[in-house]
Design goal:
The complex is a heterodimer of chains A (276) and B (474). Chain A has 276 residues and is mainly α. Chain A is built from 14 helices and two strands. Chain A has a two-stranded antiparallel ribbon with strand order 1-2. In chain A, strand 1 and strand 2 form a beta hairpin. Chain A is globular. Helices cover 48% and strands 10% of the residues of chain B. Chain B has 23 helices and twelve strands. In chain B, helix 13 crosses helix 14 and helix 22 runs antiparallel to helix 23. The two termini of chain B are 36 Å apart. Classes of the chains: A mainly alpha (276), B alpha/beta (474). The interface between A and B is large, with 57 and 49 residues.
Chain lengths: 276, 474
């Protein structure tokens, strides 16, 4: 176990750190260039733009958290029939290959023949070319992102909801609390550990988004600058342009950002997360 | 297709991770990057290097082989040393899977001491996998090459130089067209043998031409003829357009502006590979050809074509003309298009009408059996070999005069147009790190195709960026 972790994970991380300080040719052979790659990072407007895109994507996909919470609360109602069928239904996107998801959504978003624009046309709206419009492309991808993570979050919230002791709800009812009040005053506070967990995972996951973007946005798409995520940039620099030292530096920048965001979230949790 | 299956792969991986030289580092880095970024994107196959699988023969087998070789009078160099060689040949085109088996079997009849194992890798993974394998000192003995990647490999000492072999065996390269030879000449030396080629032709839908009362295009057409016809063919109320003003997929300049740049007398990269031609006025003329078509309204919009690809539009009769490579013939035939045909591209102001590209076979510099590998690629690119490949109908052999079988493979189309264009065809533009500026061209020009930036501005911006890229290659 330790050997496996060491050989396949830790050692490569150390090597990556080393290579982020080198210039690396297409077929190996590296030269030490100190902080050169990192200095370039901060002057590379594509890096800044990609970070911005990634942050926007992450923020939009975080909207999945309240949606998942509401759906989970509805599924958790007593006496609801076919709960397991719903669970399977919501969980399906999670176990579907992202590339397949992306291809299907590409068809849905088709500007001329896509079902989405067809439905819009019924109410008299001429839908845009979703995936090639700089204004809408990132939003369109984010919607797919939400659709994909929803299932997992619902399952976690369901587990969280089922762990809330029923007598608390009963006590609240006796005190005269209606369903909304019970949700806000009993369910929500006791669900905060789940919310925290889901948010942390969601931020880590969305900051690493690559596959949706890779499949849905072609390299010649005029909206690429507005949709390129940081991992996609890493891929471009490392595997298309063969500048792997620089790509390693991008990977480390991403690593740093994710670590920082996670640390901040752990710090803040003391203020709002209630453990039973 | 790694020999030995997952177990030996895992072993190979584990043992090389433990080494401490550059080999490991590359693999470790890939893995590290994947780990740090948490990527699911790096395909597993990428890390699984297929090593060169040259096997030392048992003494019995080798003596048997050498005696057979002697009996059959083979002049192969390995026959003299009495070694049997097992070679691997990597390629990406799945169409070659079946036909290559026949051809290899034929080759082995005359070279019983050489066995060749054909290894196909899907096109999307071929280059990443090859690069990883080669960096680790492995990879197949014989490597399929294309233009954009050729100089990257040749300049890094990954490919064995072929000039000595060519001289030794008096191989005549003149039957290969000048344009194609130029693609595979690097610093006045050859590291690969030309194999097949593709030029670009003008496909047209006869039904739509008849309906609009427009004469079919022929080899005398000029840019103006094409524009006039496109105008007459466009019928927006029916959703029919003259021609899609882009390539398909949309980032394949070979089917698009590389041709019109050459037709206008422009260039993409200077012959010495140091300077971009995108700011040359003639090059810009060649690019403007496409934005003009859009401005005239005879093409679907760029955004429409991003969502619905142009070849699908051609098949469904939504566009009347199409700039397409020879592979389109197979595509149209599969879609049962009997009412389409092909002719040469319309002429611009310059002599050349088209850009030529083709694949080639090279020898891995790490191979333990270079001499035998040379026998194989020499045979593939020989007159007889090219005829045999051509007869399979899957590619146009590059050796002049061996293309008849290919022409007959789809007699319903005037495929000869592709061969008639050969003499004046200009080479597909490449440099040491072609992919870098190709990516910049995609990104920057897409703004112009989408009508967001003027084409002259975009071309100049691209030239500046490409010159930076080229400067970094040194």
């Amino acid at each position: 176990m330790v050997l496996g972790l060491g050989v396949f994970y830790l050692w490569p991380v150390v090597r990556t750190a080393y290579f982020s300080f080198t210039k690396w040719g297409a077929f190996g052979g590296s030269t030490w260039i100190g902080f050169g790659n990192y200095r370039n990072l901060f002057h590379d407007h594509e890096v800044l733009q990609s970070l911005r895109n990634t942050a926007v994507y992450t923020l939009i996909v975080l909207l999945a958290v309240p949606i998942a919470m509401i759906v989970a609360a509805m599924l958790n109602q007593r006496g609801l029939r076919g709960v397991s069928a719903y669970r399977v239904f919501y969980f399906l996107p999670v176990v579907t290959i992202p590339a397949a998801v992306a291809i299907v959504w590409r068809l849905l978003y088709n500007g001329d023949y896509g079902p989405i624009n067809y439905v819009l046309s019924l109410v008299g709206i001429k839908g845009p070319y979703w995936l090639s419009s700089p204004t809408f492309a990132l939003i369109a991808i984010s919607i797919v992102g939400i659709w994909m993570v929803l299932g997992q979050q619902i399952i976690i919230f369901l587990a969280g909801l089922q762990a809330i002791p029923q007598d608390l709800h009963e006590a609240a009812s006796i005190d005269g609390a209606g369903p909304v009040r019970r949700f806000v005053s009993v369910t929500m506070p006791l669900l905060t550990p789940s919310i925290f967990f889901v948010t942390v995972l969601s931020v880590i996951g969305t900051f690493q988004m690559f596959d949706l973007m890779y499949v849905m946005i072609d390299p010649n798409n005029p909206a690429i600058a507005q949709t390129r995520t940081i991992v996609y940039l890493f891929y471009e620099r490392g595997f298309i342009e063969n500048d792997r030292g620089y790509a390693a530096a991008i990977a480390f920048l991403l690593f740093g950002i994710i670590m920082l965001l996670t640390l901040v979230q752990f710090r803040l949790q003391k203020r709002w997360v209630h453990y039973v | 297709l790694c020999d030995g299956g997952p177990l030996s792969d895992a072993e190979a991986k584990a043992s090389s991770e433990r080494d401490a030289d550059g080999v490991v580092s590359r693999r470790a880095l890939l893995k590290g990057l994947a780990g740090v970024a948490g990527l699911a994107v790096v395909p597993g196959g990428l890390l699984a290097a297929c090593g060169s699988k040259s096997k030392a023969p048992s003494s019995g087998a080798s003596s048997a082989a050498s005696s057979t070789a002697a009996a059959s009078g083979s002049a192969s160099s390995s026959a003299s040393t009495g070694q049997a060689a097992h070679l691997t040949c990597g390629y990406w085109d799945p169409n070659m899977n079946g036909p290559s088996q026949q051809i290899v079997a034929e080759f082995q009849k005359s070279h019983p001491n050489i066995s060749v194992e054909m290894q196909q890798t899907p096109p999307a993974e071929y280059w990443t996998k090859l690069q990883t394998a080669v960096s680790a000192g492995g990879g197949p003995d014989i490597i399929s090459m294309n233009g954009p990647n050729y100089q990257l490999y040749a300049s890094n000492g990954v490919l064995a130089p072929l000039d000595d072999y060519i001289k030794r065996d008096h191989v005549d390269l003149s039957p290969f067209s000048q344009g194609l030879r130029d693609v595979y000449k690097y610093k006045n030396a050859y590291y690969a043998m030309p194999f097949n080629f593709a030029t670009i032709g003008l496909w047209y839908n006869k039904q739509l031409f008849d309906a609009a009362g427009v004469k079919y295009p022929d080899e005398n057409w000029t840019w103006d003829d094409l524009k006039q016809a496109a105008k007459k063919l466009t019928n927006k109320s029916k959703g029919v357009y003259g021609i899609p003003a882009t390539s398909d997929p949309l980032y394949m300049p070979q089917e698009e502006y590389y041709n019109t740049i050459y037709q206008a007398g422009g260039y993409v990269i200077s012959p010495d590979g140091t300077k971009s031609g995108f700011d040359d006025p003639k090059t810009i003329e060649g690019l403007k050809f496409w934005t003009d078509l859009q401005a005239m309204g005879v093409s679907p919009t760029y955004q429409q074509m991003l969502d619905t690809n142009p070849s699908a539009m051609f098949i469904s009769g939504k566009v009347a003309m199409f700039y397409g490579g020879p592979w389109r013939a197979t595509q149209w035939a599969k879609a049962n298009l009997s009412h389409v045909d092909v002719t040469q591209l319309p002429k611009g102001t310059a002599q050349s009408r088209t850009c030529i590209h083709g694949t080639a076979f090279a020898i891995n510099a790490h191979s333990k059996h270079k001499d035998e590998a040379w026998e194989v690629i020499k045979s593939f690119s020989s007159k007889a070999g090219e005829e045999a490949w051509g007869a399979t109908g899957i590619l146009i052999p590059a050796y002049n005069g061996t293309q008849d079988a290919w022409l007959k493979s789809l007699p319903q189309y005037n495929l000869k147009a592709y061969i008639d264009e050969l003499p004046a065809a200009l080479p597909y533009p490449v440099s040491r790190n072609t992919a870098v500026w190709q990516k910049d061209a995609e990104t920057i020009l897409s703004q112009a195709w989408a009508g967001k930036v003027d084409i002259t501005t975009a071309a100049k911006q691209l030239a500046a960026k490409m010159n930076d890229d080229l400067a970094k290659e040194k």
